[in-house]
Every structure is written in C-alpha cells, then in structure tokens.
Amino acid sequence: MARWLMKSEPDVFGWDDLVAKGAAGEEWDGVRSAQATGNMKKMALGDEVFFYHSNIGKEIVGIAEVSAEAHPDSTADDPKWQCVDIRAVRPLKRPVTLAECKAEPRLAEMVLVKNSRLSVQPVTDAEWTVVLEMSGE
After folding, report:
1. Cα separation of 120 and 51, whole Å?
2. Please, which residues bridge with residue 72 across strands?
3. pLDDT level of residue 115 (50, 70, 90 thresholds)
4. Cβ–Cβ under 8 Å, residues 122 and 3
5. Based on CB atoms within 10 Å of each CB, which residue in 29, 38, 42, 61 is the most buried?
6. Which pLDDT score, from 0 to 100, does residue 130 have?
7. What pTM value is reported for the model?
8. What 3-state class would DSSP assign to 94?
9. Are strands 48-53 and 3-8 parallel, antiparallel or unpaired?
10. Phi-psi label, residue 11: left if phi above 0, alpha if psi -120 to 50, beta otherwise
11. Mode of pairing for the β-strands spanning 3-8 and 120-123
12. CATH class of the structural domain 3-135
C-alpha cells in the first residue's frame, strides 16, 4: 500500500466537504499538473491519503483513502487528465502545519517540505509515521 498527500483549498473544497460526501467519496477532479496526474495514476484502492488544507491553514487535517482508481477527469475535455476518487477516513487528532513539518528534521526530504506546490504527492512510510506522531496519534 502506498501513501499520499493531496492538497485542496478549504474555501473551495475542505475536509468537512469530503466528510459530508460520506462513503461515496468524491472525484479528485480539476488537477492540471502532469506530475500530480501521474501520481494519481499510480494510486491503488485503499491507499492512504493525508488531506492537506492549502492556502488557508496550510496544514494536514485528516486521513482519506483512495476509493476509485484513476479514471478520466469529468471536468476535462482531454482524456490525458485523469483523477481518482477519495473518501474521508478520520480527522487527525491535531492538525499538523506546514511550518511544523519544515521544522522537523525527520521530514527534511518530504515532498511537502521540498516542493510544497505539488498538489498530489507521495509520502514515505517513515514520513507518515512522523506526521501521525506530531498529530498526537
């Protein structure tokens, strides 16, 4: 099982919006980055995902899971743009901010720390464990 981080602006679609979608989850549409789309094409059912609020908050707030593998993005005219569906699993006990991640030496190589603009990114098992520890899990 792989682990990921997906970013969304909470004033557009935040954690509470994903929770409200329930077991059906939501298509992670609108991504127009080749690198982010490529990451979604690598995702498998059940992969775990950190849900990150970008722009407002800049923090990891919850854990989601991939509920449908890569398929054509319903908001795109070009079939090269693919997306996955995700559903909420649980909120973190305490959100973990980008500033906290940058200050944690064990996360120095994390994509979020090195390339915080990438909207869909891999997370190593070690990074996943550190973030959970920082959240009080």
Report:
1. 10
2. 82
3. confident
4. yes
5. 61
6. 98
7. 0.95
8. strand
9. parallel
10. alpha
11. antiparallel
12. alpha beta
Percent of the chain with pLDDT over 70: 100
Q: What CA–CA distances, in Å, run from 53 to 20, 25, 83, 88, 125? A: 16, 17, 19, 14, 21
Residues 6 or more apart in contact with residue 92 via CB below 8 angstroms:
60, 61, 62, 63, 132, 135, 136, 137
Q: Give pLDDT, residue 107.
A: 98
6: tokens are 């997906």
Q: In the structure encoding, which two tokens stand for residue 19, read together? A: 């929770």
- Nearest-CA neighbor of 88 among 65, 69, 68? 65
Q: Which residue type, as a one-letter code, is found at position 4?
A: W
Question: Based on the number of CB atoms within 10 Å of its own CB, is 44 exposed (0-12), middle (13-18) or buried (19 or more)?
Answer: exposed
pLDDT digits (tens, 9 = 90+) for 8-56: 999 999 999 999 999 999 999 999 999 999 999 999 999 999 999 999 9
